[in-house]
Amino acid sequence: MELSQPPGSTPGRPAPSLGVTPGGSVRRPPDRTAPPPSLSYELYPPRCAASAETLLRTIEELEPTRPDHVAVTYSGDAPRRAGSLALLDHLLARTGLRPLAHLTCVGSTRAELEETVTSLLHRGVRGVLALRGDLEPDAEPGELAHAGDLVELVREVEQRHTASLAGGRLAVGVAAYPTRHPESPSFRHDIEVLLAKQRAGADFAITQVYFRPQRYERLVASARAAGVTIPIVPGIMPVTEPRRLATLCRLAGLRPHPGLAAALEEAAGPAERHRAGVAFATRLARAALDAGAPGLHLYTFNEHRAALDLLERVDLPRVPHQPAALPDLLPA
């Protein structure tokens, strides 16, 4: 993917500030005065020409659903970091989508992070998802120990560049964990960490993947009881391949849901696996919305079909779309 020309300081719309009310799984009558549920996706930079073509098609197919933002993953590895910046520039210059830039603090100095945030602002990015990042064995931890420290740094840099924000405010998101973080001593500790991120200046949270509806409901109820007031958006991943499920669980420290794992393993072919994965994710999404979730964040694997199939099955609007020709943005 070629590096698009940065569009300057055109501000994007921050993620909506929606409330969350914890509750059960019984569908509630719609609140006509409430804003519609938010919608967002996660994309990651391509690693080859073939995956770049798939990503471009995915962006083309997802844009008509009018997401509130599109998250772009980030790596401390220099070549992959360049790919993240190229994808951000493409979204800003070639689409009407609002990027939410992942930013991790592990392995970086404070000066490096300040430079990165400044670069994002100058590019026109108006949303950041502040994460600690995965600490690899024998790797340098960096100067900031926690995601909350990164949130504070982002806000400090924002204050120094208020003129370029044209009176707007940077939207800062953080991660939340329905299932205990692999390094956390307890679920209660995770809630305390989320509260600390809010106090540092976070506007909203997106959950990591989970497989049981009760996990999200417990997270929201516990967070509200502890004083967390920011929106907590459920992260939903339509998993349609057994190998992908195994990899996801290994990286996230989760146990595979036995029903989903069996359905994917026993499916007669790709079409049946796809239907099983989408059906499972749809149930999670519906349960979260029924429980008062302010929207959905869909982890896409850079593929559009499962995400769009899920949207057709839940109460979120989708605009019909006729595919157009792909732009010539593939690497030589």
UniProtKB/TrEMBL annotation:
Cofactor(s), by name: FAD
Catalyzed reactions per annotation: (6S)-5-methyl-5,6,7,8-tetrahydrofolate + NAD(+) = (6R)-5,10-methylene-5,6,7,8-tetrahydrofolate + NADH + H(+)
Top-level taxon: Bacteria
GO function term, MF aspect, one: methylenetetrahydrofolate reductase (NADH) activity
Pathway, per record: One-carbon metabolism; tetrahydrofolate interconversion
Record carries keyword Phosphoprotein: no
The UniProt record lists the keyword Flavoprotein: yes
Pfam families found in the cross-reference section: MTHFR
Coiled coil feature spans: none
Gene Ontology CC terms: cytosol
Biological processes per GO annotation: methionine biosynthetic process; tetrahydrofolate interconversion
Stated family: Belongs to the methylenetetrahydrofolate reductase family.
UniProt-recorded name of the protein: Methylenetetrahydrofolate reductase
